[in-house]
Amino acid sequence: MEALYALVLGVLIASGVYLLLRARTFPVVMGLTLISYAVNLFLFAMGRLQSGMPAVIREGGQYTDPLPQALVLTAIVIGFAMTAFVVVLALRSLGEQGNDHVDGEESP
């Protein structure tokens, strides 16, 4: 299971980096989104999630660590805000320059 999880994370990161290296704004936005998903999954995996454990602390009982869930929830909110900002920035650039190339110049 761990190998499959690591493989999925690797594929997400590789796809994100590939899309980041494209010269168009939409693939760059998708690449950033894929990388943020991979980082969120990595944080979940590092939190050692356990099934069947209560999320609320009881006396003398075992509980799950709420820190990874809080970190991932914060990362999801920040990632959504960042994606919205980048999309608006890309649309503004498209409106002013007439193309979606990241450098603003269309290659011949």
Automatic annotation (TrEMBL):
GO cellular component, one term: plasma membrane
Subcellular location: Cell membrane
Pfam families, sorted: Oxidored_q2
Topology within the bilayer: Multi-pass membrane protein
Major subcellular location class: membrane
InterPro entries assigned to the protein according to its UniProt record, in alphabetical order: CPA3_antiporter_subunitC, NUOK/Mnh_C1-like
Keyword Cell membrane set for record: yes
Family (UniProt): Belongs to the CPA3 antiporters (TC 2.A.63) subunit C family.
Name used for this protein in its record: Na+/H+ antiporter subunit C
